[in-house]
Write the structure tokens for this entry.
Amino acid sequence: MRPTPPPRTYRVKSFGCQMNVYDGERMAELLGAQGISPAPEGEEADLVVLNTCHIREKAAEKVYSDIGRIVKDWRREDGTSPLIAVAGCVAQAEGEEIMRRAPAVSMVVGPQAYHRLPEMVAEAAEGRRTVETDMPAEAKFAALPARRKVGPSAFLTVQEGCDKFCTYCVVPYTRGAEISRPYKDLVAEAQGLVEAGAREITLLGQNVNAWRDDTNRGLEKLIETLAAMPGLARIRYTTSHPNDMTEGLIEAHRDIEKLMPFLHLPVQAGNDRVLKAMNRSHSADSYLRVLDRVRAVRPDIALSGDFIVGFPGETDAEFEDTLKLVDAVGYAQCFSFKYSARPGTPAATMDGQVAAEVMDERLQRLQAALNRDQLAFNQASVGKRCTVLVERKGRHEGQWLGKSPWLQSVHFTGEAAIGDLVEVELTAAGPNSLSARLLHPAHA
Ligand code: 5AD
Ligand code: SF4
């Protein structure tokens, strides 16, 4: 590759989970600290970071088509294109392969190594291509700059990696073993986020409820500390594993007012044979019992989950068990996916791979049931009074958008500003959002 002038502008495009969104923000901060500015909307950037997701096939393939598009659309008069960095889980999984397949890429950086991005950018400008896919995560966090400017709702990665090895999942290979960031670093980062304007913090981790400090205290301890921070109004956490839902964390939903009544607890399937083949280490029944315990302490909790249809060997009858579980829970919202064979995972070579048409049909039936329940949950909220954290302006004059405590999107018109926590009455519900009447502005 030939040398180019050092980049002056960047764009980070994040795909996939919220942890990638967090990583994308941190990469932007790192580049900002080097004096590189975000490219204005619609304008070409000198440096493009594709922060990729490897969880399903489509997500991974998208990277190569995106690279092709950047090269084609943004070739300059002198024949050069922007510097391209591939980050995230595709970078980790494919490493050198990306360099071979995509000559336009000059940096490949895994999710645990992106603190090295500034050096890599300097090398790329000199015409050198580099691959960084080291796994230890601790070095990364220590090397990142302080948080400066954030919206009212901010992410904070507290835990990374996964030791569960569900047989369909690439995460244990791309994000590595479970590690918990130290308590004091997290408290300091949370404080920084609050000072930078965050009113809500969502604690993130692939198995966020597996977080432990060095004296083995669980996530509820961290939540309790954050709840005592003046200025911070709301705390959430995601994503959790059913087996790590401890009594302490469940009780936090009763005892800590700032902990929002929302739990994302993936189950994946409703049939025990399938769950076993997935290596989920919980049954449908033990999962439902966890939800019972949570509902006992926080009856209004909004429940959310993830589902996979068409896992290898899943029969029609086994899929029906998933629908039964959905009926039994009454979810407020969910994510559901067709099984996607990921190279290197045990399920990819299992017998009984399910035909695409069968998966399509199962996904449609599942989503119809989930949409029905989501609408019912939203409709049942009509008439309730609650707070809304205002996140942005709506499409219409004087309209605002924000989130209810139950993570529903809510719109209302009236006197408000981004970052306000206002009191509303929910007045009407659709499948994806609710409208509300402003009771009185609660500027804080
Ligand atoms: N195929 C389909 N869905 C998957 N997920 C993880 N791996 C796969 C796969 N191979 C889903 C799971 C997980 C969510 C983040 O993505 O439901 O909870
Ligand atoms: Fe993947 Fe299972 Fe770990 Fe979740 S718990 S990240 S699905 S291996």
